[in-house]
Amino acid sequence: MAEIAASRAEVLRTRDLIGWAVGDPAGANVGTVSDLLIGRDGRVRYLAVKRGLLSSAVLIPVGEVDWGEQSLRLTRWLDAEVRRLPTYDGDHPLSPEVIAELERAHPRYYGPALPFDAPGVETASKLVPLRQARDFRLPKTAPNVRGWSVFGEDHERIGTVEDMLVDPEAMKVAYLDVDVSDDLFLLREDRHVVIPMEAVELRERGEDVWVHRLTAAQVALLPAYTGGPVDPLVEMRVREAFARGSANARDPRLEAGPVPPLASNQAAPHPPHDREMPPPLHDRPADADRYPDENVMPMDHPGDLPPGHRPEDMPPPLPPRM
Predict the structure, then answer these.
(1) CA 23, chain centre distance (Å)
(2) Strand (E) positions, 126-257?
(3) Rounded Cα–Cα distance for residues 16 and 105 (Å)
(4) Would you report the helix, strand and coil content of the chain in percent, each value rounded to 5?
(5) pLDDT tens string 216-249
(6) What is the pLDDT of residues 108-152, one digit of tens each?
(7) What domains are defined for the chain?
């Protein structure tokens, strides 16, 4: 019997793919294939790509790779973007709830395909973390809210403020970067979300941030912020979520121009863990304006606004940004 000449296989076994190298469009090594995940319809949905020998795996949709000779190449994502994906835990099944959260929390990577010319999906952003804004410093009168506790409209704790995101052109703080408590979402990741300043109230005595119109669980449904400049697609989804309700005026102390940097030995405040929760927003007494609540920032009392500021001068509620 004549021997069959060796040739390139047109149909691959699962074990043939394990260990294939995965690269990005720039040629950087991303990792190796550690598993294939197949849907109940029989189609391969995701590739589990292990980042390194001791690193965790991430999920790559199969439509995001080009197939080569014993190697794969990502069609769009760079290695730096793959690093931002949530960790894939093979011990937990990809239930419909987990897949839905992947698509909602990371719409740029797991959500439905968007046309490149769709409004708001450009990748450039002018909003950056405070520490990366070279020409912007908080005014001396502005509170440094990093480390403050964040509560939802339902008085449930959301997490803590990690950083402030600023608009260097407008010279103002635009969003808070909030580290969300792990029990509010399903994915295995350090989940952060961004919350517009117009939608929060700062309470200096308790070092708390109160979010209007969204409960803690609803805030956890916002798309994830993965660091660096804010993805405009994430910003668009966040503003859509808050557009259904009105928002308080922002604190004018966070909108001032550049001031000298903070002293190097000045640490961000960290709220104690054994204090009582501040009172609900709607439980203020009727004569609160007569006896101002020290927990509430001066902007809540028109008579306490800085000189030259009138209530009608404050910015309108959040409009949808397209």
Answers:
(1) 26
(2) 128-129, 149-151, 157-167, 172-180, 192-196, 200-203, 208-211
(3) 32
(4) 20, 25, 55
(5) 999 999 999 998 888 888 999 999 999 875 333 3
(6) 899 887 655 454 455 556 788 888 777 787 778 888 899 999 999
(7) 14-94 (2.30.30.240), 128-263+288-313 (3.90.50.10)
